[in-house]
Amino acid sequence: MHRNGIGITGVAQVFWWLCIYRMDKSLNLLSLTSNVPASLQTPLGDPEFVKLPAKHQCLICHKVMRDAVMTLCGHRMCEGCLTPLLFDPQNKEPVHCPGKEEFCIELKPDEIRGDNGTRREIRKLSVFCTFKAHGCPEKLPWKDLMTHESQCKYKPIPCPHTGCELQCSEDKMEAHVKNCDYRPVRCSYCEETIPFCLQADHQNNTCRKAIISCPYKCDHGPGAREEIEIHMQTCQLRPQECKFKSMGCQFVGSERDMQKHNKDAADEHLQMITMYTASMDLQSMEMRRELQDISAERDTFQHIMESIQRDSRMLKDLVESIKVGQKELKLKIVEKTERIIHLEKKVDDSAKKEVVDKLERDVQSVKDRQISLAERVNQIERSGFTGGGTGSQQNLQETTGPLVTQIQQHDRQLGLQDIRLAELDLRFQVLETASYSGILMWKIRDYSRRKQEAISGRTVSLYSQPFYTSRFGYKMCARLYLNGDGMGKGTHLSLFFVVMRGEYDALLPWPFQQKVTLLLLDQDAGARHVSDTFRPDPTSTSFKRPTSDMNIASGCPLFVSHAVLETRTYLKDDTIFIKVTVDNDGINAQG
């Protein structure tokens, strides 16, 4: 469609070139630094300048300009500071020069230029060495700072002693290492190497060879710590606690003092024993009362547990009876379902090619006869009207009356034959779409309408087209109840698998024993299929060799609830997909 002589394609091309132009403008400023040689790029780092002139300071960040750019009005600033102002997506207003002088103008990306002269001057600005605090007196151009740092003799290095965190220049490190608190020294007693700052603590507390005296101040002379520790266990002056401490006596003394204490405090100890015994009797009485209370509570809990166990047995019996009832109900449902399927299949006729050909010949014969009769009626009518008179008309009516009735009968038969032909044509289309890989892919359109027909009872179930395990293998189909069947009626979609009578059943092993998987396909993410897999029961009549057009269906009355099915995951465009796969392993028939 065109409007004002410009087509939709032309408008799209114009929009495309405008986008490219806008991108070119934004890239213009961003590429100012990347396109200049390394000799003009601002050095890295944040050094201390000997003197930083105002003309070399950015108007935005007020620090030294990095990759200096210049506006048309002559102001200079960092490229990195100016770029966010020009390309801020939230700022819809024009960007004015940060100089804010009378002659300043609106800034545009394509009018910003890199100021190579200022960049060259900034690279030559004098700076102090980064290691000035460590004694380096050097002042040099900024561009040479990095080279100097790698060679500077005042560059701090870490102390080699473990535990020391000091860093200093190389010329000071030699003196520091000699006097470092963490320098290794050898213990004069045990010869163990330890840091200098821990030497005193080591000798006073942990050294096994250090010479110490008995801490109990006995007559034993000084000795190694390991010897004194053994002596302390048998020292006569070692403090001991009174054996009546648990009853309240707090006396502590040497072995000699303890013997004197036991004699002097015998009455006190006896009184402590009496009070302790009385206290223990009181505690014993309280414990007996608590035991009685606990015993009573235990009896109560035991009665409660017995009651719970009786109720539990009753509930188990009730559950078992419910399970038995459910099994009986399922058997009745299956029996009713089998009878319904047999009744429905007695009504259906299998489509045969010769039947269709015969019906087409019959219809053509009826059409030819109808045409002949119509011509004959026309001739009689013409002859009757040309003859004139009442008698001729009466003869005409007597002659044409039976013919008209016969034509009407033929019209009805022709209509029935047309309907029959349409049904047979549909059956042949189904046969042409049959799968021979053991996989059925069934697309059910108009889900809402078909479900409503199922609810109203008009079309309770749907049969899929037949599919086969191979060209000469088992013949099967699926049966679907959109409004559910049996236990799932009104709440679930019921899906069943049906074994049909095939042309090559005599070559196949029976009963049917292949694993069957039923799936409702996920149309959204493609990974949450609803599936159910079962292996046929060899004793079931559903999987014996069919003696009629199809066996009794077997499957899942509660395959999927309507609440789960009727979501965008499984129902899209009023369509669902059912897939049935049959495992072909172990089939002996050829094909």
From TrEMBL:
Domain TRAF-type: 147-195, 202-249
Statement: the UniProt record of this protein carries the keyword tRNA-binding: no
Keywords: Apoptosis, Coiled coil, Cytoplasm, Isopeptide bond, Metal-binding, Receptor, Repeat, Ubl conjugation, Zinc, Zinc-finger
Annotated MATH domain residues: 437-582
Protein's cellular compartments: Cytoplasm
Entry keyword annotation includes Cytoplasm: yes
Classification via SMART domains: MATH (SM00061)
Tree of life domain: Eukaryota
A GO term from the CC aspect: cytoplasm
Domain RING-type: from-to ranges: 58-98
Zinc finger (TRAF-type): 147-195, 202-249
InterPro entries: MATH/TRAF_dom (IPR002083), TNF_rcpt-assoc_TRAF_met (IPR012227), TRAF-like (IPR008974), TRAF1-6_MATH_dom (IPR049342), Znf_C3HC4_RING-type (IPR018957), Znf_RING (IPR001841), Znf_RING/FYVE/PHD (IPR013083), Znf_RING_CS (IPR017907)
Residues forming coiled coils: 326-376
Residues in SIAH-type domain copies: 124-182
An MF annotation (GO) of this entry: zinc ion binding
GO biological process: apoptotic process; regulation of apoptotic process; regulation of canonical NF-kappaB signal transduction; signal transduction
Pfam family, one: zf-TRAF
Protein name in UniProt: TNF receptor-associated factor 3
